[in-house]
Design brief:
Length: 288
């Protein structure tokens, strides 16, 4: 028991034994600063400093952006930003795919490489209700009324059944039709002969989605209108509009020319497209 007590006293004496820490001038050995320390004080100061350092580091990591620089650490804000960026990336990819399809459709319009549906509702009705199966007698007044209505529908407006809105189509140029619209010949347009340099007018209000030179069709300008309606003007001598510009019906967008490998004389190659399918322009516009 006495040995244990003596050992404890020796340990306590060592811990409480006073030391003096002196800071001297290296050249003159003049005493600048001195501290009286014990081993116990050194242990206590070291422990307190360690605790303060750990606490300060914890506070910096928990409440400052420095934690984001720790490898492997992921905050809620970073996860939220990552989700937002992922959603934006997915949306941009969808937009790119849609634009690629859209530009592909424009390319098909320029080259004339478009698949045509061989039947529609009217052709089916013609096959079902033939003159042999159903004969209706019509009076002269009824015939005149039908012709009047047909002329009004032909020249006055282009109506979208889906939206119910109407678009008045303006004559792009007056002239002689040298080649008519023909699905069999894959000529989805009208060729209107006109004087070289004559103004080409926009058929309706819209935006220019293409205005460039092509080897086969020369200067080409394409307008997009409401109700998924597109008009195409080829073989122009020059273009008065650039891509992205807004135009109004009857506004000059180009001049008649004889440009491109497929042109044989001054004329306007005019196409009318609705919902991605070609339409005979003469059914809606009077070119005489």
């Amino acid at each position: 028991m006495n040995a244990k007590t003596s050992k404890r006293k020796k340990i306590a004496k060592k811990l409480l034994h006073k030391y003096r820490l002196v800071i001297l001038n290296e050249d003159s050995f003049e005493e600048r600063l001195s501290f009286k320390l014990t081993r116990l004080n050194v242990f206590i100061l070291s422990g307190v400093a360690a605790i303060l350092l750990i606490g300060l580091t914890t506070l910096l990591i928990a409440f400052t952006p420095l934690r984001e620089y720790i490898p492997g650490y992921s905050s809620a804000a970073l996860k939220k930003d990552a989700r937002i960026l992922l959603a934006k990336t997915d949306s941009l990819q969808n937009i790119i795919r849609v634009n690629e399809q859209y530009y592909g459709s424009i390319k098909n319009v320029l080259t004339g490489d478009v698949a045509i549906i061989e039947f529609d509702r009217d052709s089916i009705q013609e096959q079902v209700f033939t003159s042999d199966e159903l004969e209706v007698e019509t009076s002269r007044a009824d015939s005149l009324l039908r012709e009047t209505v047909a002329q009004e529908d032909k020249y006055n407006l282009f109506q979208s059944a889906s939206s119910g809105s109407e678009i008045a189509l303006f004559t792009p140029i007056n002239g002689i039709i040298s080649q008519s619209y023909s699905i069999r010949d894959k000529h989805y347009a009208l060729d209107i002969v006109a004087e070289k340099g004559a103004p080409v007018l926009a058929a309706a209000d819209g935006i220019v989605i293409f205005a460039e030179w092509t080897a086969e069709t020369g200067h080409v300008i394409i307008l997009r209108h409401d109700n998924d309606l597109i008009t195409v003007y080829k073989h122009n001598e020059s273009l008065a509009k650039i891509q992205g510009e807004l135009v109004t019906a009857g506004e000059v967008i180009a001049t008649v020319g004889n440009t491109g490998e497929l042109s044989t004389g001054p004329h306007l190659h005019f196409e009318l497209w609705a919902d991605g399918y070609p339409i005979n322009p003469i059914d809606f516009i009077d070119f005489n």
